[in-house]
Amino acid sequence: MLDLAIIGGGPAGLSAGLYATRGGLKNVVMFEKAMPGGQITSSSEMENYPGVAQVMDGISFMAPWSEQCMRFGLKHEMKEVVRVSKKDDVFEILLSDNTSTLAKSVIVCTGSAPKKAGFKGENEFFGRGVSTCATCDGFFYKNKEVAVLGGGDTALEEALYLSKICKKVYLIHRRDAFRAAPSTVERVKKCENIELILNAKVDEVYGDNSGVTGIKIEFNDKSTKDLAIPGIFTFVGLDVRNEVLKQENGEFLCKMSEQGNVIVDLKMKTNVAGLFAAGDLRLDASRQVVCAAADGATAALGVIAYLEGH
């Protein structure tokens, strides 16, 4: 039986693994079906982590984390978790291959995923001109014109990244002001090949067998605009990944908010003894790497205290 099962391998999960193993737990496994790193690995620019002065991409930033965590005994199993349930004082971790393992405690750090924008043609052309990762797909649009949809930090940072690759970037936002950090907004406004399209939304993406060939934009005053471009990158928010906590009867293992976030206290404890949640999954998460890492460390310390009391 595991002392601790960590579900998810982003900054919260890795930090939890580091603090749990360094804190003395001997049998700790992190379940992550992909390589560890989390959503930040798709970011083109990481510049606000305290103590890391060098600006780098997300993959380079996260590369040392796994090595550091594994050094203290954290094990990584590249398996997908389907469900976490609890019977008496023991948690059962059901995996996608229909096997299961038992654990004395669990930290769920499954994070979040890019939210769909909801325009016509989004699903049809996803991966063929519609993308949520500029780092992954930006190269395919070298010296071409593309659009970015969104008004937060991620949207503006990715627009800046694409501006270095693409001939022109159209930044589309439904309001006339951005939610991003003022310094990022200023950089975008000074970038010569980024054109702002404000008070507007993407109504439709269209194309042919080769992929996207254009997008239709509708402004708040109901006027329209057609852009003949081969690609659009959407950054309109995140959906939490809470599926592993849903039980066979459709209810969740622990208390959740109306938005689907896990309700925790300041120590990342849920209302279920031995179950903790950290990172974007939990209520009121800041959605910042430094905060997710802190959550993971806090949860791990909570697990150590919980196990000592049992």
From TrEMBL:
Residues 3-296 form the FAD/NAD(P)-binding domain. InterPro entries: FAD/NAD-bd_sf, FAD/NAD-binding_dom, Ferredoxin-NADP_redctase_2, Pyr_nucl-diS_OxRdtase_2_AS, Thioredox_Rdtase. Its EC number is 1.8.1.9. It catalyses: [thioredoxin]-dithiol + NADP(+) = [thioredoxin]-disulfide + NADPH + H(+). Binds 1 FAD per subunit. It holds the Pfam family Pyr_redox_2. It is an enzyme of class 1 (oxidoreductase). Keywords: Disulfide bond, FAD, Flavoprotein, NADP, Oxidoreductase, Redox-active center. The keyword Lyase does not apply. The keyword Transferase does not apply. GO terms for molecular function: thioredoxin-disulfide reductase (NADPH) activity. Homodimer. NCBIfam families: TRX_reduct (TIGR01292). This is Thioredoxin reductase.
